[in-house]
Design a protein that fits this description.
Shape: globular
Number of strands: 16
Radius of gyration: 20 Å
Distance between the termini: 29 Å
Strand content: 25-35%
Number of domains: 1
Helix content: 10-25%
CATH architecture: 2-Layer Sandwich
Length: 291
């Protein structure tokens, strides 16, 4: 499999954070629309044993997340509040184990990502009024800086050009919630190959399922995914069962050097549709081996 990187530049605010498992689900819809439903079904036939594509979260350009490791293993000082804000690391520092060189948002961005609540009012579309009175509700929105996104691609199943076409369609359709009112639009750069560093210790680039993972040790932060179905399948009971995952930045220690490029498993049977598959995989990049 080949690892590619592209930089996404938002053209509007987002209503959903850039997460790899959500991106993968929307990429599947884009493949269906860009090609055919049969093409998508063919790609998913062997997904439980060999994924055709694994998608990362969005990261600050030229940086990766700080690993989810105890402070003692990263030689951090006692200022826990300051350490929690240091969330970005360069690839070189990760591979050399220079965890104390992690940077916070102010050191990486001239202007930080912003999030806020936008107020709306419920409308009765039969009467075209607000009903019995003022009925406000808030929707969270994100004004994002450019983000790097990684794709681990099996080009024997889906070519780089096909990925580009599907992702271009997704960029115009919009990502996440409220795309019908213009949220989640973006443009992206050329897909460039990114070297995969093998190591006995790897870090994940999206939430994943560690269930059944054979490893020597694992460090992670739990993450609960409350997913929804997309497109026409959201018409009735759009909610999926909650999934308990290991969050982005998880660190896994193996006995031998790990060269598979990803960890995790596909997740099924969490909705009323048996053919829906959740990306329980995560791209795994080598970092400094833990002694």
């Amino acid at each position: 499999m080949t690892l590619y990187k592209t930089m996404v530049t938002p053209r509007s605010n987002f209503a959903t954070p850039l997460r790899g498992d959500t991106l993968f689900g929307q990429l599947c819809w884009a493949i269906r629309y860009a090609f055919t439903e049969e093409k998508l079904k063919k790609l998913l036939v062997s997904y439980e044993s060999e994924p055709f594509c694994v998608v990362s979260d969005g990261f600050a350009p030229n940086f990766l997340p700080k690993p989810s490791l105890p402070s003692s293993l990263m030689n951090e000082d006692a200022d826990k509040k300051a350490n929690r804000k240091k969330i970005w690391m360069s690839k070189e520092d990760l591979q050399e184990g220079n965890f104390t060189k992690a940077k916070n948002n102010n050191e990486v961005y001239q202007k930080k990502d912003a999030e806020g609540i936008v107020m709306h009012n419920s409308i009765n579309y039969k009467k075209f009024n607000t009903g019995e009175g003022f009925d406000p509700y808030g929707v969270k929105e994100y004004a994002l800086n450019p983000k790097d996104i990684y794709f681990l691609l099996d080009e024997t199943k889906l070519s780089k050009d096909e990925l580009h076409k599907a992702f271009e369609l997704l960029s115009n359709m919009g990502y996440g919630q409220d795309t019908t009112v213009g949220k989640g639009r973006f443009k992206f750069s050329e897909f460039k190959k990114y070297p995969i560093q093998n190591s006995k210790t790897v870090m994940t680039l999206s939430p994943f399922s560690p269930q059944g993972l054979a490893c020597k040790d694992i460090f992670y932060t739990p993450f609960t995914r409350f997913g929804k179905k997309g497109a026409h399948r959201a018409n009735q009971n759009p909610f999926k069962k909650p999934l308990l995952l290991a969050d982005t930045g998880s660190v896994i220690v193996f006995t031998d050097s790990y060269n598979k490029g990803y960890v995790g498993k596909a997740i099924k049977n969490h909705t009323s549709h048996a053919d829906i598959i959740h990306q329980g995989y995560a791209i795994a990049i080598g970092i400094k081996e833990l002694s």
